[in-house]
Amino acid sequence: MRTVKQTIPHVFLMGYLLVILYPFLFVLFSSVKTSNQEIAASPFGWPSAIQWDNYINAWVNAKISTYFFNSLYIGILSACLSILFAAMLAFAISRMRYHRTSALLFQLVLLGMLIPNNALLLPIYGMMRQLDILDTHLALIVPYTANAIPFTVIILTAFMRSIPGEIEEAAVMDGLRPAGLFAKIILPLTIPAIVTIFIINFLGNWNEFLLANYFLSNDALKTLPVGMVGFRDAYNTNYAQMSAGIVFSVLPVMIIYAILQEKIIEGVTAGSVKG
Amino acid sequence: MLHGAPFFFTEVTMNKALRNPLTYLLFVLPALLLFLAFFIYPVFTAVYNSFTSWNGISQDKAWIGLGNYTTALDDAAFWQSVKNNGYFILFSCLIQVPVIIIFSLLIAQVKKLKGLYKTAVFLPSIMSTAVIGILWGFIYHPDFGLMNEALGLLGIEPVYWLSDRKWAMLAILITNSWQWTGFYIIMVLAAILSIPAELEEAAVIDGATGLQRALRITLPLILPIISVVIMLSIAGAMKAADIVLVMTKGGPAGSTDVMATYMIRYAITSFKHGFGNSIAVLIFVFTILITAAYQLLVARRVERMDSR
Protein backbone atom coordinates (compact mmCIF):
# COMPACT_ATOMS: atom_id res chain seq x y z
CA MET A 1 0.00 0.00 0.00
CA ARG A 2 2.74 2.37 1.01
CA THR A 3 4.73 1.82 -2.16
CA VAL A 4 1.60 2.30 -4.25
CA LYS A 5 1.01 5.61 -2.54
CA GLN A 6 4.55 6.68 -3.29
CA THR A 7 4.34 5.70 -6.95
CA ILE A 8 1.15 7.56 -7.79
CA PRO A 9 2.77 11.05 -7.83
CA HIS A 10 5.56 9.65 -10.00
CA VAL A 11 3.05 8.32 -12.51
CA PHE A 12 1.51 11.76 -12.95
CA LEU A 13 4.86 13.52 -12.99
CA MET A 14 6.25 11.09 -15.56
CA GLY A 15 3.19 11.85 -17.67
CA TYR A 16 3.97 15.56 -17.45
CA LEU A 17 7.61 14.89 -18.28
CA LEU A 18 6.54 12.96 -21.36
CA VAL A 19 4.39 15.88 -22.54
CA ILE A 20 7.34 18.26 -22.11
CA LEU A 21 10.11 16.10 -23.48
CA TYR A 22 8.37 14.15 -26.23
CA PRO A 23 8.06 17.09 -28.62
CA PHE A 24 11.85 17.50 -28.45
CA LEU A 25 12.34 13.79 -29.04
CA PHE A 26 9.89 13.92 -31.95
CA VAL A 27 11.94 16.68 -33.55
CA LEU A 28 15.17 14.83 -32.88
CA PHE A 29 13.87 11.64 -34.53
CA SER A 30 12.34 13.56 -37.42
CA SER A 31 15.60 15.41 -38.03
CA VAL A 32 17.37 12.22 -39.17
CA LYS A 33 14.55 10.77 -41.26
CA THR A 34 14.69 10.68 -45.04
CA SER A 35 11.44 12.42 -45.94
CA ASN A 36 8.04 13.66 -44.92
CA GLN A 37 6.67 10.24 -45.90
CA GLU A 38 8.84 8.52 -43.34
CA ILE A 39 7.77 10.98 -40.63
CA ALA A 40 4.13 10.41 -41.56
CA ALA A 41 4.51 6.62 -41.61
CA SER A 42 6.03 6.28 -38.14
CA PRO A 43 5.90 9.55 -36.21
CA PHE A 44 6.65 7.86 -32.90
CA GLY A 45 9.35 5.53 -34.14
CA TRP A 46 13.08 5.42 -34.68
CA PRO A 47 14.31 6.51 -38.09
CA SER A 48 14.99 3.57 -40.42
CA ALA A 49 18.39 4.91 -41.48
CA ILE A 50 20.08 7.92 -40.01
CA GLN A 51 20.17 10.78 -42.47
CA TRP A 52 22.86 13.25 -41.40
CA ASP A 53 22.48 15.19 -44.66
CA ASN A 54 19.52 17.03 -43.13
CA TYR A 55 21.88 18.68 -40.69
CA ILE A 56 24.34 19.73 -43.36
CA ASN A 57 21.53 21.06 -45.57
CA ALA A 58 19.86 22.90 -42.70
CA TRP A 59 23.16 24.46 -41.64
CA VAL A 60 23.73 25.75 -45.18
CA ASN A 61 20.15 26.62 -46.18
CA ALA A 62 19.08 28.12 -42.89
CA LYS A 63 22.39 30.05 -42.56
CA ILE A 64 22.38 28.94 -38.94
CA SER A 65 25.96 30.07 -38.38
CA THR A 66 25.22 33.67 -39.44
CA TYR A 67 22.08 33.97 -37.33
CA PHE A 68 23.71 32.20 -34.43
CA PHE A 69 26.63 34.62 -34.19
CA ASN A 70 24.39 37.65 -34.74
CA SER A 71 22.21 36.54 -31.82
CA LEU A 72 25.22 35.68 -29.70
CA TYR A 73 27.02 38.98 -30.05
CA ILE A 74 23.92 41.17 -29.88
CA GLY A 75 22.73 39.25 -26.82
CA ILE A 76 26.06 39.44 -24.99
CA LEU A 77 26.87 43.05 -25.90
CA SER A 78 23.42 44.39 -24.93
CA ALA A 79 23.38 42.42 -21.68
CA CYS A 80 26.84 43.76 -20.75
CA LEU A 81 25.92 47.35 -21.60
CA SER A 82 22.69 47.23 -19.57
CA ILE A 83 24.58 45.81 -16.61
CA LEU A 84 27.33 48.45 -16.83
CA PHE A 85 24.93 51.42 -17.04
CA ALA A 86 22.50 49.95 -14.51
CA ALA A 87 25.31 49.15 -12.07
CA MET A 88 26.58 52.74 -12.29
CA LEU A 89 23.11 54.09 -11.59
CA ALA A 90 22.56 51.55 -8.82
CA PHE A 91 25.88 52.58 -7.24
CA ALA A 92 24.96 56.25 -7.34
CA ILE A 93 21.52 55.52 -5.87
CA SER A 94 22.61 53.13 -3.16
CA ARG A 95 26.05 54.36 -2.07
CA MET A 96 26.47 58.04 -2.90
CA ARG A 97 25.09 60.61 -0.49
CA TYR A 98 22.33 62.29 -2.45
CA HIS A 99 19.51 60.49 -0.74
CA ARG A 100 16.59 62.60 -1.87
CA THR A 101 17.50 62.70 -5.55
CA SER A 102 18.30 59.01 -5.40
CA ALA A 103 14.93 58.09 -3.90
CA LEU A 104 13.23 60.04 -6.67
CA LEU A 105 15.31 58.36 -9.39
CA PHE A 106 14.54 54.95 -7.98
CA GLN A 107 10.79 55.62 -8.00
CA LEU A 108 11.04 56.75 -11.60
CA VAL A 109 12.82 53.55 -12.61
CA LEU A 110 10.21 51.48 -10.74
CA LEU A 111 7.59 53.16 -12.89
CA GLY A 112 9.30 51.63 -15.91
CA MET A 113 8.38 48.16 -14.67
CA LEU A 114 4.71 49.01 -15.11
CA ILE A 115 5.00 50.00 -18.75
CA PRO A 116 4.12 47.14 -21.12
CA ASN A 117 7.03 47.27 -23.55
CA ASN A 118 5.20 45.59 -26.46
CA ALA A 119 2.93 48.58 -26.64
CA LEU A 120 6.00 50.80 -27.18
CA LEU A 121 7.06 48.95 -30.33
CA LEU A 122 5.77 51.66 -32.68
CA PRO A 123 7.26 54.76 -31.04
CA ILE A 124 10.59 52.95 -30.72
CA TYR A 125 10.37 51.95 -34.38
CA GLY A 126 9.85 55.63 -35.18
CA MET A 127 12.84 56.65 -33.07
CA MET A 128 15.08 54.09 -34.77
CA ARG A 129 14.05 55.44 -38.15
CA GLN A 130 14.74 59.02 -37.14
CA LEU A 131 18.16 57.99 -35.89
CA ASP A 132 18.58 56.25 -39.25
CA ILE A 133 19.75 53.01 -37.68
CA LEU A 134 16.91 50.74 -38.83
CA ASP A 135 18.33 47.67 -40.52
CA THR A 136 21.57 47.82 -38.56
CA HIS A 137 22.36 45.87 -35.42
CA LEU A 138 22.31 49.10 -33.43
CA ALA A 139 18.52 49.13 -33.89
CA LEU A 140 18.44 46.08 -31.63
CA ILE A 141 21.41 46.72 -29.34
CA VAL A 142 20.21 50.12 -28.14
CA PRO A 143 16.59 49.12 -27.35
CA TYR A 144 17.69 45.80 -25.79
CA THR A 145 20.14 47.65 -23.57
CA ALA A 146 17.49 50.17 -22.54
CA ASN A 147 14.72 47.60 -22.01
CA ALA A 148 16.69 45.68 -19.39
CA ILE A 149 17.64 48.77 -17.39
CA PRO A 150 14.69 49.11 -14.95
CA PHE A 151 14.81 45.50 -13.83
CA THR A 152 18.62 45.42 -13.65
CA VAL A 153 18.74 48.65 -11.64
CA ILE A 154 16.18 47.37 -9.14
CA ILE A 155 18.00 44.08 -8.48
CA LEU A 156 21.48 45.64 -8.36
CA THR A 157 20.36 48.48 -6.07
CA ALA A 158 18.86 45.97 -3.63
CA PHE A 159 22.09 43.98 -3.74
CA MET A 160 24.41 46.98 -3.33
CA ARG A 161 22.39 48.32 -0.40
CA SER A 162 23.09 45.10 1.46
CA ILE A 163 26.87 45.60 1.28
CA PRO A 164 28.02 46.77 4.73
CA GLY A 165 29.14 50.41 5.02
CA GLU A 166 32.37 49.57 6.91
CA ILE A 167 33.89 48.22 3.73
CA GLU A 168 33.57 51.51 1.90
CA GLU A 169 34.65 53.52 4.94
CA ALA A 170 37.90 51.58 4.98
CA ALA A 171 38.28 52.12 1.25
CA VAL A 172 37.66 55.87 1.51
CA MET A 173 40.20 56.12 4.34
CA ASP A 174 42.66 54.48 2.00
CA GLY A 175 42.04 57.35 -0.40
CA LEU A 176 39.67 55.81 -2.94
CA ARG A 177 37.31 58.21 -4.67
CA PRO A 178 33.74 57.27 -5.72
CA ALA A 179 34.77 56.00 -9.16
CA GLY A 180 37.51 53.87 -7.64
CA LEU A 181 35.17 52.68 -4.91
CA PHE A 182 32.73 51.57 -7.60
CA ALA A 183 35.26 49.82 -9.80
CA LYS A 184 37.51 48.29 -7.16
CA ILE A 185 35.20 47.51 -4.23
CA ILE A 186 31.48 47.56 -4.94
CA LEU A 187 31.42 46.07 -8.45
CA PRO A 188 33.56 43.01 -7.55
CA LEU A 189 31.33 42.38 -4.52
CA THR A 190 28.25 42.49 -6.76
CA ILE A 191 29.48 39.79 -9.14
CA PRO A 192 27.08 37.05 -7.91
CA ALA A 193 24.04 39.22 -8.65
CA ILE A 194 25.59 40.34 -11.94
CA VAL A 195 26.05 36.75 -13.15
CA THR A 196 22.39 35.97 -12.49
CA ILE A 197 21.19 39.14 -14.17
CA PHE A 198 23.49 38.60 -17.11
CA ILE A 199 21.86 35.23 -17.74
CA ILE A 200 18.34 36.69 -17.57
CA ASN A 201 19.18 39.61 -19.85
CA PHE A 202 21.08 37.45 -22.28
CA LEU A 203 18.26 34.88 -22.56
CA GLY A 204 15.74 37.68 -23.03
CA ASN A 205 17.79 39.20 -25.86
CA TRP A 206 18.59 35.81 -27.39
CA ASN A 207 14.89 34.91 -27.58
CA GLU A 208 13.51 38.34 -28.52
CA PHE A 209 11.38 38.21 -31.65
CA LEU A 210 9.25 41.31 -32.21
CA LEU A 211 11.91 44.03 -32.55
CA ALA A 212 14.28 41.67 -34.34
CA ASN A 213 11.56 40.81 -36.82
CA TYR A 214 10.47 44.35 -37.68
CA PHE A 215 13.64 46.42 -37.25
CA LEU A 216 15.90 44.37 -39.54
CA SER A 217 15.20 43.32 -43.09
CA ASN A 218 18.67 42.43 -44.36
CA ASP A 219 18.93 38.65 -44.19
CA ALA A 220 22.61 38.64 -43.21
CA LEU A 221 21.80 40.69 -40.07
CA LYS A 222 18.94 38.57 -38.76
CA THR A 223 18.96 36.90 -35.36
CA LEU A 224 18.30 33.24 -34.74
CA PRO A 225 14.55 33.33 -33.87
CA VAL A 226 13.72 35.50 -36.87
CA GLY A 227 16.05 33.53 -39.13
CA MET A 228 14.42 30.28 -38.05
CA VAL A 229 10.95 31.57 -38.82
CA GLY A 230 12.15 32.71 -42.24
CA PHE A 231 13.72 29.30 -42.81
CA ARG A 232 10.46 27.58 -41.86
CA ASP A 233 8.50 29.77 -44.26
CA ALA A 234 10.94 29.03 -47.08
CA TYR A 235 11.38 25.27 -46.52
CA ASN A 236 8.07 24.31 -44.99
CA THR A 237 7.71 21.37 -47.30
CA ASN A 238 10.78 19.56 -45.94
CA TYR A 239 10.04 18.79 -42.32
CA ALA A 240 13.08 16.59 -41.80
CA GLN A 241 15.39 19.46 -42.69
CA MET A 242 13.32 21.89 -40.64
CA SER A 243 13.65 19.60 -37.63
CA ALA A 244 17.41 19.64 -38.01
CA GLY A 245 17.22 23.43 -38.02
CA ILE A 246 15.18 23.38 -34.81
CA VAL A 247 17.78 21.09 -33.20
CA PHE A 248 20.54 23.54 -34.11
CA SER A 249 18.70 26.48 -32.59
CA VAL A 250 17.63 24.66 -29.43
CA LEU A 251 20.90 22.86 -28.70
CA PRO A 252 23.03 25.82 -27.50
CA VAL A 253 20.36 26.87 -25.00
CA MET A 254 20.05 23.26 -23.80
CA ILE A 255 23.81 23.02 -23.26
CA ILE A 256 23.93 26.32 -21.36
CA TYR A 257 20.94 25.17 -19.33
CA ALA A 258 22.57 21.83 -18.50
CA ILE A 259 25.63 23.62 -17.13
CA LEU A 260 24.02 26.59 -15.40
CA GLN A 261 20.54 25.35 -14.53
CA GLU A 262 20.66 26.25 -10.84
CA LYS A 263 21.66 29.84 -11.63
CA ILE A 264 19.16 30.10 -14.47
CA ILE A 265 16.20 28.82 -12.47
CA GLU A 266 17.06 31.07 -9.54
CA GLY A 267 17.64 34.09 -11.77
CA VAL A 268 14.66 33.76 -14.05
CA THR A 269 12.20 33.16 -11.22
CA ALA A 270 13.69 36.05 -9.22
CA GLY A 271 13.32 38.17 -12.33
CA SER A 272 9.65 37.34 -12.66
CA VAL A 273 8.61 38.56 -9.24
CA LYS A 274 9.60 42.04 -10.34
CA GLY A 275 5.97 42.95 -11.17
CA MET B 1 43.85 56.50 13.63
CA LEU B 2 41.31 54.60 11.59
CA HIS B 3 39.80 52.82 14.54
CA GLY B 4 40.14 55.72 16.90
CA ALA B 5 38.31 58.11 14.61
CA PRO B 6 35.22 59.51 16.31
CA PHE B 7 31.91 58.83 14.63
CA PHE B 8 31.29 62.36 13.36
CA PHE B 9 34.73 62.41 11.80
CA THR B 10 34.10 59.33 9.65
CA GLU B 11 30.62 60.54 8.82
CA VAL B 12 31.94 63.88 7.62
CA THR B 13 34.73 62.28 5.60
CA MET B 14 32.35 59.79 4.06
CA ASN B 15 29.87 62.48 3.15
CA LYS B 16 32.60 64.52 1.59
CA ALA B 17 34.01 61.58 -0.32
CA LEU B 18 30.63 60.34 -1.52
CA ARG B 19 29.17 63.72 -2.42
CA ASN B 20 30.60 64.80 -5.71
CA PRO B 21 28.04 66.31 -8.09
CA LEU B 22 30.03 65.67 -11.24
CA THR B 23 30.69 62.02 -10.43
CA TYR B 24 27.07 61.52 -9.42
CA LEU B 25 25.91 62.99 -12.69
CA LEU B 26 28.28 60.86 -14.73
CA PHE B 27 27.12 57.71 -12.96
CA VAL B 28 23.44 58.47 -13.27
CA LEU B 29 23.29 59.92 -16.76
CA PRO B 30 23.80 56.98 -19.19
CA ALA B 31 21.12 54.76 -17.66
CA LEU B 32 18.79 57.67 -17.00
CA LEU B 33 18.96 58.95 -20.57
CA LEU B 34 18.30 55.48 -21.99
CA PHE B 35 15.43 55.04 -19.58
CA LEU B 36 13.83 58.37 -20.46
CA ALA B 37 14.34 57.78 -24.19
CA PHE B 38 12.90 54.25 -24.25
CA PHE B 39 10.25 54.31 -21.53
CA ILE B 40 8.96 57.80 -20.83
CA TYR B 41 9.33 59.58 -24.17
CA PRO B 42 7.68 56.75 -26.22
CA VAL B 43 4.61 56.80 -23.97
CA PHE B 44 4.11 60.49 -24.75
CA THR B 45 4.73 60.11 -28.50
CA ALA B 46 2.34 57.13 -28.60
CA VAL B 47 -0.39 59.17 -26.94
CA TYR B 48 0.26 62.17 -29.18
CA ASN B 49 0.39 60.18 -32.42
CA SER B 50 -2.75 58.29 -31.50
CA PHE B 51 -4.69 61.51 -32.12
CA THR B 52 -3.29 61.90 -35.65
CA SER B 53 -3.73 60.19 -39.00
CA TRP B 54 0.06 59.96 -39.43
CA ASN B 55 1.23 57.23 -41.81
CA GLY B 56 4.55 56.86 -40.02
CA ILE B 57 6.71 58.38 -42.77
CA SER B 58 5.48 61.73 -44.08
CA GLN B 59 6.20 65.02 -42.35
CA ASP B 60 2.62 66.17 -41.90
CA LYS B 61 0.47 64.76 -39.14
CA ALA B 62 -3.20 65.65 -39.35
CA TRP B 63 -4.84 65.98 -35.93
CA ILE B 64 -8.04 63.93 -35.98
CA GLY B 65 -8.94 63.95 -32.31
CA LEU B 66 -10.53 60.74 -31.13
CA GLY B 67 -11.03 59.50 -34.70
CA ASN B 68 -8.65 56.56 -34.35
CA TYR B 69 -10.25 55.46 -31.13
CA THR B 70 -13.77 55.47 -32.52
CA THR B 71 -12.54 53.56 -35.59
CA ALA B 72 -10.97 50.94 -33.35
CA LEU B 73 -13.91 50.64 -30.99
CA ASP B 74 -16.28 50.27 -33.97
CA ASP B 75 -14.15 47.57 -35.60
CA ALA B 76 -15.39 44.01 -34.97
CA ALA B 77 -11.89 42.69 -35.73
CA PHE B 78 -10.49 44.79 -32.89
CA TRP B 79 -13.00 43.33 -30.45
CA GLN B 80 -12.13 39.86 -31.73
CA SER B 81 -8.52 40.58 -30.77
CA VAL B 82 -9.59 41.87 -27.33
CA LYS B 83 -11.60 38.68 -26.88
CA ASN B 84 -8.56 36.59 -27.75
CA ASN B 85 -6.48 38.40 -25.12
CA GLY B 86 -9.36 37.53 -22.79
CA TYR B 87 -9.07 33.85 -23.77
CA PHE B 88 -5.38 33.99 -22.90
CA ILE B 89 -6.25 35.27 -19.43
CA LEU B 90 -9.12 32.81 -18.88
CA PHE B 91 -7.08 29.86 -20.07
CA SER B 92 -4.25 30.67 -17.68
CA CYS B 93 -6.51 31.30 -14.69
CA LEU B 94 -8.96 28.43 -15.12
CA ILE B 95 -6.79 25.71 -16.62
CA GLN B 96 -3.14 26.58 -16.11
CA VAL B 97 -3.33 27.66 -12.46
CA PRO B 98 -4.96 24.41 -11.18
CA VAL B 99 -2.39 22.39 -13.15
CA ILE B 100 0.40 24.51 -11.68
CA ILE B 101 -0.86 23.95 -8.14
CA ILE B 102 -1.34 20.19 -8.55
CA PHE B 103 2.05 19.56 -10.12
CA SER B 104 3.98 21.78 -7.73
CA LEU B 105 2.36 19.91 -4.81
CA LEU B 106 3.29 16.60 -6.44
CA ILE B 107 6.92 17.61 -7.01
CA ALA B 108 7.16 18.90 -3.43
CA GLN B 109 5.95 15.52 -2.15
CA VAL B 110 8.23 13.12 -3.98
CA LYS B 111 11.63 12.30 -2.56
CA LYS B 112 13.25 10.69 -5.57
CA LEU B 113 13.86 12.37 -8.94
CA LYS B 114 12.92 15.84 -7.64
CA GLY B 115 15.88 17.41 -9.46
CA LEU B 116 14.97 15.72 -12.74
CA TYR B 117 11.38 16.95 -12.55
CA LYS B 118 12.45 20.51 -11.79
CA THR B 119 14.98 20.59 -14.62
CA ALA B 120 12.64 19.10 -17.23
CA VAL B 121 9.56 21.06 -16.25
CA PHE B 122 11.43 24.37 -16.46
CA LEU B 123 13.11 23.66 -19.80
CA PRO B 124 10.53 25.10 -22.25
CA SER B 125 10.43 28.48 -20.52
CA ILE B 126 14.03 29.33 -21.43
CA MET B 127 13.48 28.58 -25.12
CA SER B 128 12.71 31.17 -27.74
CA THR B 129 8.96 31.52 -28.25
CA ALA B 130 9.58 31.72 -32.00
CA VAL B 131 11.30 28.34 -32.07
CA ILE B 132 8.60 26.82 -29.86
CA GLY B 133 6.00 28.20 -32.26
CA ILE B 134 7.81 26.50 -35.15
CA LEU B 135 8.11 23.24 -33.22
CA TRP B 136 4.41 23.19 -32.33
CA GLY B 137 3.43 24.20 -35.85
CA PHE B 138 5.08 20.91 -36.84
CA ILE B 139 3.28 19.00 -34.05
CA TYR B 140 -0.04 20.42 -35.28
CA HIS B 141 0.66 19.54 -38.91
CA PRO B 142 -2.57 17.95 -40.21
CA ASP B 143 -0.89 15.10 -42.13
CA PHE B 144 2.13 14.02 -40.12
CA GLY B 145 2.08 16.06 -36.93
CA LEU B 146 2.30 14.34 -33.58
CA MET B 147 -1.07 15.64 -32.42
CA ASN B 148 -3.18 14.12 -35.17
CA GLU B 149 -1.20 10.87 -35.08
CA ALA B 150 -1.86 10.58 -31.34
CA LEU B 151 -5.55 11.44 -31.77
CA GLY B 152 -5.68 8.97 -34.66
CA LEU B 153 -4.75 6.18 -32.25
CA LEU B 154 -7.94 7.04 -30.38
CA GLY B 155 -9.89 6.95 -33.63
CA ILE B 156 -10.31 10.72 -33.91
CA GLU B 157 -10.39 12.25 -37.39
CA PRO B 158 -7.50 14.58 -38.34
CA VAL B 159 -8.02 18.16 -37.19
CA TYR B 160 -6.68 21.15 -39.13
CA TRP B 161 -5.39 22.75 -35.97
CA LEU B 162 -3.93 26.00 -37.24
CA SER B 163 -6.07 26.58 -40.33
CA ASP B 164 -9.48 25.91 -38.80
CA ARG B 165 -11.06 28.91 -37.10
CA LYS B 166 -12.61 26.64 -34.48
CA TRP B 167 -9.31 25.23 -33.28
CA ALA B 168 -6.57 27.74 -34.07
CA MET B 169 -6.93 29.81 -30.90
CA LEU B 170 -7.05 26.72 -28.69
CA ALA B 171 -3.95 25.37 -30.43
CA ILE B 172 -2.07 28.59 -29.62
CA LEU B 173 -3.28 28.59 -26.01
CA ILE B 174 -2.08 25.00 -25.54
CA THR B 175 1.34 25.87 -26.94
CA ASN B 176 1.57 28.97 -24.76
CA SER B 177 0.76 27.06 -21.60
CA TRP B 178 3.11 24.24 -22.62
CA GLN B 179 5.87 26.85 -22.63
CA TRP B 180 5.02 28.67 -19.39
CA THR B 181 3.35 26.21 -16.98
CA GLY B 182 6.68 24.75 -15.84
CA PHE B 183 8.06 28.20 -15.12
CA TYR B 184 5.22 28.93 -12.71
CA ILE B 185 5.43 25.44 -11.20
CA ILE B 186 9.02 26.21 -10.17
CA MET B 187 7.93 29.52 -8.61
CA VAL B 188 5.14 27.89 -6.60
CA LEU B 189 7.38 24.95 -5.72
CA ALA B 190 9.93 27.31 -4.20
CA ALA B 191 7.17 28.78 -2.02
CA ILE B 192 6.00 25.32 -0.92
CA LEU B 193 9.52 24.20 -0.05
CA SER B 194 10.04 27.28 2.10
CA ILE B 195 7.12 26.35 4.39
CA PRO B 196 8.61 25.29 7.74
CA ALA B 197 8.62 21.50 8.12
CA GLU B 198 7.24 21.71 11.68
CA LEU B 199 3.80 22.73 10.39
CA GLU B 200 3.61 19.62 8.24
CA GLU B 201 4.92 17.41 11.05
CA ALA B 202 2.41 18.77 13.56
CA ALA B 203 -0.40 18.02 11.12
CA VAL B 204 0.87 14.47 10.62
CA ILE B 205 0.85 13.94 14.39
CA ASP B 206 -2.73 15.25 14.48
CA GLY B 207 -3.58 12.55 11.98
CA ALA B 208 -4.20 14.71 8.90
CA THR B 209 -4.10 12.85 5.59
CA GLY B 210 -1.94 13.98 2.68
CA LEU B 211 -4.90 15.58 0.93
CA GLN B 212 -6.04 17.37 4.09
CA ARG B 213 -2.52 18.71 4.64
CA ALA B 214 -2.34 19.98 1.06
CA LEU B 215 -5.73 21.70 1.22
CA ARG B 216 -5.63 23.02 4.78
CA ILE B 217 -1.97 23.89 5.32
CA THR B 218 0.00 24.20 2.09
CA LEU B 219 -2.63 25.82 -0.11
CA PRO B 220 -3.51 28.74 2.21
CA LEU B 221 0.19 29.42 2.72
CA ILE B 222 0.96 29.60 -1.00
CA LEU B 223 -2.05 31.76 -1.93
CA PRO B 224 0.07 34.94 -2.10
CA ILE B 225 2.47 33.40 -4.63
CA ILE B 226 -0.48 32.05 -6.64
CA SER B 227 -1.81 35.58 -6.70
CA VAL B 228 1.56 36.68 -8.13
CA VAL B 229 1.36 33.89 -10.72
CA ILE B 230 -2.07 35.14 -11.81
CA MET B 231 -0.79 38.72 -12.04
CA LEU B 232 2.14 37.60 -14.17
CA SER B 233 -0.18 35.52 -16.38
CA ILE B 234 -2.38 38.55 -16.94
CA ALA B 235 0.62 40.70 -17.81
CA GLY B 236 1.90 37.96 -20.12
CA ALA B 237 -1.51 37.56 -21.75
CA MET B 238 -1.72 41.28 -22.53
CA LYS B 239 1.76 41.21 -24.07
CA ALA B 240 1.31 38.02 -26.12
CA ALA B 241 2.25 38.60 -29.73
CA ASP B 242 5.22 36.58 -30.95
CA ILE B 243 3.57 33.17 -30.43
CA VAL B 244 0.59 34.28 -32.55
CA LEU B 245 2.77 35.84 -35.25
CA VAL B 246 4.88 32.72 -35.59
CA MET B 247 2.08 30.15 -35.49
CA THR B 248 -0.80 31.74 -37.42
CA LYS B 249 0.08 35.39 -38.18
CA GLY B 250 -3.31 36.18 -36.65
CA GLY B 251 -5.17 33.99 -39.14
CA PRO B 252 -7.25 32.30 -40.33
CA ALA B 253 -9.12 35.52 -41.14
CA GLY B 254 -8.10 37.37 -38.00
CA SER B 255 -9.55 34.71 -35.71
CA THR B 256 -6.36 34.43 -33.61
CA ASP B 257 -5.37 38.10 -33.62
CA VAL B 258 -4.52 39.57 -30.23
CA MET B 259 -4.37 43.32 -29.63
CA ALA B 260 -0.61 43.50 -30.19
CA THR B 261 -0.73 41.67 -33.53
CA TYR B 262 -3.73 43.74 -34.62
CA MET B 263 -1.68 46.85 -33.82
CA ILE B 264 1.33 45.60 -35.77
CA ARG B 265 -0.76 44.68 -38.79
CA TYR B 266 -2.11 48.21 -39.12
CA ALA B 267 0.89 50.20 -38.06
CA ILE B 268 3.82 48.52 -39.72
CA THR B 269 2.30 46.44 -42.47
CA SER B 270 -0.27 48.93 -43.74
CA PHE B 271 1.31 52.21 -42.58
CA LYS B 272 -1.53 53.41 -40.36
CA HIS B 273 0.88 54.57 -37.73
CA GLY B 274 -1.48 56.94 -35.94
CA PHE B 275 -4.12 54.24 -35.74
CA GLY B 276 -1.57 51.71 -34.47
CA ASN B 277 -0.57 54.08 -31.70
CA SER B 278 -4.17 54.39 -30.59
CA ILE B 279 -4.21 50.57 -30.23
CA ALA B 280 -0.99 50.80 -28.21
CA VAL B 281 -2.67 53.27 -25.87
CA LEU B 282 -5.71 50.99 -25.61
CA ILE B 283 -3.48 48.01 -24.71
CA PHE B 284 -1.95 50.22 -22.06
CA VAL B 285 -5.33 51.29 -20.68
CA PHE B 286 -6.81 47.78 -20.69
CA THR B 287 -3.74 46.39 -18.93
CA ILE B 288 -3.99 49.01 -16.20
CA LEU B 289 -7.76 48.46 -15.81
CA ILE B 290 -7.49 44.68 -15.55
CA THR B 291 -4.54 44.86 -13.16
CA ALA B 292 -6.31 47.41 -10.98
CA ALA B 293 -9.54 45.38 -10.96
CA TYR B 294 -7.63 42.25 -10.02
CA GLN B 295 -5.75 44.05 -7.25
CA LEU B 296 -8.95 45.50 -5.81
CA LEU B 297 -11.17 42.45 -6.10
CA VAL B 298 -8.86 39.52 -5.47
CA ALA B 299 -5.31 40.33 -4.41
CA ARG B 300 -6.39 42.41 -1.40
CA ARG B 301 -8.50 39.58 -0.07
CA VAL B 302 -5.62 37.17 -0.46
CA GLU B 303 -3.38 39.51 1.50
CA ARG B 304 -5.96 39.82 4.23
CA MET B 305 -6.18 36.04 4.49
CA ASP B 306 -2.43 35.91 4.56
CA SER B 307 -2.11 38.32 7.47
CA ARG B 308 -4.78 36.58 9.48
Derived structural class of chain A:
mainly alpha
- Beta-strand portion of chain B reads under 5%
The secondary-structure class of chain B comes to: mainly alpha
Largest interface: A-B, 100 and 95 residues
Oligomer: heterodimer
Write the element-wise H/E pattern of chain B from the N-terminal end onward.
Answer: HHHHHHHHHHHHH
Give the helices and strands of chain A as they follow along the chain: HHHHHHHHHHHHH
Major β-sheet profile of chain B: none
Main β sheet profile of chain A: none
Strand content of chain A: under 5%
Low-confidence stretches of chain A: none
Structure description:
The complex is a heterodimer of chains A (275) and B (308). Chain A has 275 residues and is mainly alpha-helical. Chain A has helices at 2-30, 36-41, 53-61, 64-95, 99-112, 121-130, 138-147, 149-161, 165-173, 178-207, 210-215, 224-234, 239-272. In chain A, helix 4 (64-95) runs antiparallel to helix 12 (224-234). Chain A starts with a helix and ends with a helix. The relative contact order of chain A is 0.15. Chains A and B meet through helix 1, helix 2, helix 4, helix 5 and helix 6 of A and helix 1, helix 2, helix 4, helix 5 and helix 6 of B.
Describe the structure concisely for a colleague.
Chain A is mainly alpha-helical. Helix content of chain A is 77%, strand content 0%.
Fold topology:
The complex is a heterodimer of chains A (275) and B (308).
Chain A: H1 2-30, H2 36-41, H3 53-61, H4 64-95, H5 99-112, H6 121-130, H7 138-147, H8 149-161, H9 165-173, H10 178-207, H11 210-215, H12 224-234, H13 239-272
Helix pairs in contact in A: 1-13, 3-13, 4-7, 4-8, 4-10, 4-12, 5-8, 8-10, 9-10, 10-13, 12-13
Chain B: H1 7-18, H2 21-49, H3 67-74, H4 76-109, H5 114-122, H6 129-139, H7 146-153, H8 165-193, H9 197-205, H10 210-239, H11 242-247, H12 259-269, H13 273-307
Helix pairs in contact in B: 2-13, 3-13, 4-8, 4-10, 4-12, 5-8, 8-10, 9-10, 10-13, 12-13
